[in-house]
Amino acid sequence: MKHTSPAPSLTLPTEGLAKLPAVMNATGLPRSTIYARIKLGEFPAPVKLGERSVAWPVESVRAWIAERVAVATKAGAK
User: Is the overall model pTM greater than 0.90, yes or no?
Assistant: First the structure.
């Protein structure tokens, strides 16, 4: 019997680390945009978990989202 991995969760966990699919779902950004913004210093960098595995601290992703909401709310109030 072939073992298959469970599908990655698309919801941002309440704490800890989040894998790329959850970060993409939470932010609404595609992979390429996330990595482009990391390179520009406009998005939190992931934590390296292994040779080919990374994840984002949930707190940093939530803070980034909160900052975007605050900027949008402020701009809408003008």
Answer: no
